[in-house]
Write a sequence for this structure.
């Protein structure tokens, strides 16, 4: 890994450790509506999450403290999770999406959350104990090198995390590895719709805030295809510019990035009317 990439990773890890610690302490870290921020006011986090596509019913299903107002969408809206499935959540944070996925796959299924920040991992595990989630586990690891065996998952979800990686091609390659044949990606993330100025791309705050690290849509499609994925769909949400503007007021980042739903399938599923293809 290059020195620059390692510096990016260390800055992101430090930023999200501060988010977890602020949430644990009931303090606001200063950015209430960003995917890198957290508020000490549950009503603010609820407002942020419903703005991102979650329902009030969703918020009632997770332990207190799991919803920190993070993310840029609701990946479960496109995941079509089913009872009995194995789901991996990349960058699981405090466990919010993992717990919601656990309800959908039921006790017959299993959810594995991956996060590289020990403080956040401890928070997620504590939340799992509070909520008595026996079908969820959280593992320490980097999303480029997942601590998961080959052909494990039916679905991989992620919420505004892959943009933070300095090596997104490795993220997609390892996601492909851990998915079962026929497994699918269901991701909400920030993508670039125009080339961002160098001063924005090199700004550590904008990178940890899920903006400066966004890749162009065409580049993401190439990375995913190179990893082996098929049925690739990237659906930008122009209406997301409204809340992205709030992530860095006055900086104009909403002219360069939007939230998008990203979907793809690992080929090789069994045929329905014959033996496996």
């Amino acid at each position: 890994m290059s020195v620059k990439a390692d510096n990016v990773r260390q800055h992101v890890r430090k930023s999200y450790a501060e988010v977890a610690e602020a949430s644990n302490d009931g303090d606001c870290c200063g950015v209430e509506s960003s995917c890198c921020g957290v508020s000490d006011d549950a009503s603010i986090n609820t407002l942020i999450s419903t703005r991102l596509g979650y329902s009030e019913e969703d918020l009632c299903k997770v332990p207190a403290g799991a919803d920190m107002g993070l993310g840029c969408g609701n990946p479960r809206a496109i995941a079509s999770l089913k009872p009995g499935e194995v789901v991996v959540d990349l960058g699981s944070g405090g466990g919010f999406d993992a717990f919601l996925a656990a309800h959908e796959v039921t006790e017959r299924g299993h959810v594995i959350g991956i996060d590289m920040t020990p403080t956040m991992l401890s928070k997620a595990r504590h939340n799992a104990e509070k909520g008595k989630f026996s079908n969820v586990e959280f593992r320490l690891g980097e999303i480029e090198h997942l601590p998961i065996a080959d052909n494990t998952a039916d679905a991989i979800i992620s919420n505004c995390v892959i943009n933070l990686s300095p090596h997104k091609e490795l993220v997609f390659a390892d996601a492909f590895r851990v998915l079962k044949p026929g497994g699918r990606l269901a991701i909400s993330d920030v993508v670039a719709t125009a080339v961002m100025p160098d001063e924005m791309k090199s700004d550590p705050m904008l990178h940890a805030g899920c903006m400066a690290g966004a890749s162009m849509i065409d580049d993401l499609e190439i990375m995913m295809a190179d990893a082996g994925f098929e049925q690739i769909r990237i659906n930008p949400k122009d209406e997301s510019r409204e809340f992205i503007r709030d992530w860095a007021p006055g900086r104009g980042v909403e002219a360069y990035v939007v939230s998008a739903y990203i979907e793809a399938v690992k080929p090789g599923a069994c045929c329905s009317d014959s033996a496996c293809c």
